[in-house]
Amino acid sequence: MIDLEKVKGYDSLTARRKEIFKEVFVRHNACYENPKNKKLMTPVKVENDEHGVKVTFKNKGWLHYYTNGTWG
Which of 20, 26, 47, 64 could cysteine-pair with 51, CB 3.0–4.6 Å? Predict the structure, then answer.
């Protein structure tokens, strides 16, 4: 499992956004059964944004982790 506190930008997240990032990542990551897909969806950067947390992944894609606990 990845150490989410070492993801680039983690230290700049607010305390609440850190909680959102950790909680949503666990649920989001559980959706991937294939280890290759899990690896591609490894967070490499996070940012505070108006929706919650913008998460950029190893595959260069990104998602919002919303304050209501969902992602998209």
Answer: 64
